[in-house]
Amino acid sequence: MTFERQGRGALEYFPCRYGKSKILFRGPKRDLSNPYVAFLGGTETYGRFIEKPFPWLVEQETGKTMVNLGCVNAGIDVFRREPTVLRMCYNADVTVIQLMGAQNMSNRFYSVHPRRNDRFIRASTLMKTIFREVDFTDFTFNRHMLMTLHTLSPERFEVVKDELKAAWLARMQALLETISGKVVLFWFSERTPEDPDQVTAAGLGVDPLFVDRKMLETLRPLVADIVEFQPSKKAIHSGTEGMVFSPLEVPAADTMLGVKAHQEAASVLAKSLSKLVGK
Question: 138-171 as b/e, with b when 16 or more CB fall inside 10 Å?
Fold first, then answer.
């Protein structure tokens, strides 16, 4: 395990705000008076521990301005509730949406924090009825809560998972209709949309959690393109090489796609965007 440039301290993300948004995005802040491409997404889009995440690399490859609106651990809700973000996407030449998992958003069974979507807030009466034996005050994070429910009863967990999938699809359709311009959906994951959910005793599986091929194809008529990308084995095996993090952040860094994966992703995504930007 190597830690890049520990002596310089934490990676500088140059946090910034746009308009009246309460969210701190990754900077430096971009000039929106010129044509640009907006990037929505989660931890990978933000580029946690990555000095040059894929939106920055796409900009270098295409010469077009890319505005990084990614949020760590984001779900769809964080963007749907931000008028500033939606306005920025409406005005963008193209909006790229990294596909996020279905677990980090409010639904009929539980509510999440409006900006930190990975944080569990409360269970609904319906959830408490289905899982009467569970004390939901024990949970802070969605994944922990869902993993506990699956361990307790895989059969009852399927009811929750089906709700998450349906809510994700409805929420994505609403988001796409709000943006209304050219949108590219970006699948950036170690798994393919055809791979089954790998919910085991060890964890819930690989993001985007619970999203599958059928869900993607339902959205295809609403977007300009769907770019699917799985990093090469070489990129996966490179692990945390080139990432910037402290010893305390090792567990988090180990779960993320690394520098080489971002480089490969940018090359693939740039090809799609080059056909759309300016048209």
Answer: ebebbbebbbebbeeeeeebeebbebbbebbbeb
The per-residue pLDDT for 266 is: 98
For the record, the structure tokens of 133 come out as: 């034996």
Q: Quote the tokens at residue 38.
A: 């907006």
200 beta partners: 203
Question: 82: buried, middle or exposed (CB in 10 Å: 19+, 13-18, 0-12)?
Answer: buried
CA torsion through residues 55, 208, 84, 11, sign: negative
Which of 99, 2, 112 is CA-nearest to residue 44?
A: 99
Are 197 and 243 spatial neighbours (Cβ–Cβ below 8 Å)?
no
Q: Answer whether 193's CB lies under 8 Å from 228's CB.
A: yes
Q: Reply yes or no on whether the pLDDT at 100 is more than 80.
A: yes
What pLDDT, on a 0 to 100 scale, did the predictor assign at position 121? 97
CA angle 262–221–95, rounded 5-degree value = 40
Tens digits of residue pLDDT in 19-60: 999 999 999 999 999 999 999 999 999 999 999 999 999 999
CB 67 within 8 A of CB 32: yes
If you classify domain 6-105+181-276 with CATH, what class do you get? Answer: alpha beta
**Sign of the CA dihedral running 178, 180, 181, 187:** positive
Reported pTM: 0.93
